[in-house]
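Protocol step 4 of 6: structure prediction from sequence.
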Amino acid sequence: MNEKEKIERDSFVFYRSFYEAIKDLDKKEQSNLLCAICELALNGNEIELNGISSTIFKLIKPQINANLKRYKNGSKGGRPKTENKPKENQSKTKHKPNVNDNVNVNENIYVHLHAQWFDKFWKLYPRKVNKKKAKDKFFRICKDENTFNAIMRGLKKQMKSVEWQNEGGKYIPHPTTWLNGERWLDEVDESSDDSNTNDMNAIADEIFGFGDEDE
């Protein structure tokens, strides 16, 4: 908030889209994000967050600020009442729509998250063919963080498979085909010690940030 006056509210509107955005986070991130939302909405103070919590908060913050602005205008009395008499023609009453500024908050959050998830998937997938088609398929399949984690773990395992190592990766399917067949669920015949395998593992660990102990 740019205004310097102190804000203290007893309550605020917590939208369903906020809940949908944070429900798949781990408990620590949920707690940090909820505290940040409450602190901004009730006291007008912004708490610094990191990682995915920061990303989600940046998309939620404009809605909270808009509500705070309406609250502050209301606490000052709002617009002065006019003494004008009603217009003669009252047969056509104009009803102001009840616009919910929050309608697109949840959608924007997940579009942003899905884009981040796909970027990680694409960077890791060794056969980069038809990116647009793969992205469309990925967005339809990967609906939540659990699915994303399962896809990435399955992909990392298959990068170590004998089939994907043979003949320089000749038998690695196109990414769209792999996603369409839910191939991350396949059983994997892992190869023995191999320089290719070690290289692929190093790439996977760098991108996704976990090692074999998480499998």
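Step 5 (inspection) to follow. Confidence is low (pLDDT under 50) at residues 210-215.
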